[in-house]
Amino acid sequence: MSGLVLDLFAGPGGWGHALTVLGGRDVGLEWDEWACKTRAAAGQLTVRTDVAMYPVRPFLGRTVGCIASPPCQAWSMAGKRLGLLDQPLVHQAVADLARGRDTREKLLESCRDKRSLLAAEPMRYLHALNSVGEPDWVAMEEVPDVLALWRQYAAILRTWGFSVWTGILNAADYGVPQTRRRAILLASRTQTAQPPTPTHARTAEPETLFGPGRDRWVSMAEALGWGATDRPVPTVCAGGGPGGGPEPFPSGSRKSLSDARDRGTWKQPPAGPGVALKSRHKGSGNGTHEDRPANGTAPAFTAQTHRWSWSLRSNNQANATIRPLSEPAGTLFFGHRANECVWVAEPEPGLGRQCAAPEPIRITAQEAGVLQTFPADYPWAGNKGQMFSQIGNAVPPRLAVHLLAPYLGKTVSPDDFALAA
């Protein structure tokens, strides 16, 4: 286990897949059953355990790198954000752990969200590892509101001889088709810690005497291999309400509309009556689940369908981000019914209002995974809800590649890898 990279709260393998791309691998500690199964199917070493209870001793004397992405639910905009109220307790836990004092049990009694204190867990590992001069480098990621906590970690790590950088990075600046902003901490004992150079920008920037150019942000259409106005290909199934639920059909038996549209160019369906998409939840206002015809065949669509432009709506809330296919997605987050992510249609110029808009179509796990820059064939385990939860909590592998490359002695460019192929 020489040169081990320890991955705390490893999830389904965002950091792990990035390490695979870079020629390395991690040992992940993760509690969620389905994330562990996903990691196992992807060939990643995993210990299913509670990170807060697992001993550090097995890793002493063999750890070169430490990665941590604590659960974000207590801090995320998608939840109640009780972590912000618990923040003083978390800061206290970090300060105590950095001095070798374990006050977690007492502090946990006062936490409004029991998950808040998980953000202090990396310090327990780092303090023990530091006693033997490890690790060489540290990389941590969380939602933007955790930046103040990362700065506390940074102040402590500097007293241990680390160079440290903390800040907010936008994943879209590194080729991720999603404007996902995250608080990052990078630390190293052997080199100056600094953020990776962005490879992309909102608008393309040509190369100059002062540095390399940057490509335009990657759009959803580019990442998914669709044209900018292509119609999404929904899965037609008979069960599973908004936000997930068990798959109604065995693996491989689901029907899709792939024969109704060639990826990249819309082909008008054969003449005949169209089948309109209808919500299964009448009166719910969601309008996100399409009925499956009684004969079990994939539905056709009217000739007007191809004249609608498609966008992605990040959730069902009033302030949901809506982005056209020609742009990156907003931050993808899942976990409860209000966070359902759907494709919605808007009329193209000249269509008018005489034709009713198609109903919203729920994003598939594969599509969501690709927008997180996982490979299209990544082996997600679990039902739809479990898959979406894993995807929404994962670190985009393409961002992780850029964060980790300097500490593995690698140099990457936009053309060096294609994670969503």
Topology record:
Elements: E1 4-8, H1 14-21, E2 27-30, H2 33-41, E3 45-48, E4 63-68, H3 82-98, H4 104-108, H5 121-130, E5 137-142, H6 147-159, E6 163-170, E7 181-188, E8 200-201, E9 215-216, H7 220-224, E10 235-236, E11 255-256, E12 308-313, E13 322-324, E14 342-347, E15 361-362, H8 365-371, H9 384-393, H10 397-404
Helix pairs in contact: 1-10, 3-6
Largest sheet: spatial strand order: 3-2-1-4-5-7-6
- Helix and strand content put the structural class at alpha/beta
The number of helical runs is 10
Q: How many β-strand runs? A: 15
Name the average pLDDT. Answer: 80
Head-to-tail CA distance between termini: 31 Å
- Outline, from the CA principal axes? globular
Characterize the biggest β-sheet: 7 strands, mixed
* % residues in beta strands: 15-25%
Q: Over all CA atoms, what is the radius of gyration?
A: 23 Å
**What is the CATH T-level topology of the domain at 4-214 and 394-408?**
Rossmann fold
The CATH superfamily label of the domain at 4-214 and 394-408 reads Vaccinia Virus protein VP39
What is the CATH architecture assignment of the domain at 4-214 and 394-408?
Answer: 3-Layer(aba) Sandwich
CATH class of the domain at 4-214 and 394-408: Alpha Beta
Query: Low-confidence spans: pLDDT under 50, at least 5 residues?
Result: 235-305
Helicity level: 10-25%
Order of helices and strands: EHEHEEHHHEHEEEEHEEEEEEHHH
Describe this entry's structure for a reader:
The protein has helices spanning 14-21, 33-41, 82-98, 104-108, 121-130, 147-159, 220-224, 365-371, 384-393, 397-404; strands spanning 4-8, 27-30, 45-48, 63-68, 137-142, 163-170, 181-188, 200-201, 215-216, 235-236, 255-256, 308-313, 322-324, 342-347, 361-362. With 421 residues, the protein is of the alpha/beta class. The protein has a domain at 4-214 and 394-408: Vaccinia Virus protein VP39 (Rossmann fold), CATH 3.40.50. The strands form four sheets. It has a seven-stranded mixed β-sheet, with helices on both faces. A four-stranded antiparallel β-sheet has the order 13-12-14-15, with no helix packed on it. Helix 1 (14-21) links the parallel strand 1 and strand 2. The longest helix is centred in the first third of the chain and has 17 residues, at 82-98. The relative contact order is 0.14. Mean pLDDT is 80; it is low at 235-305.
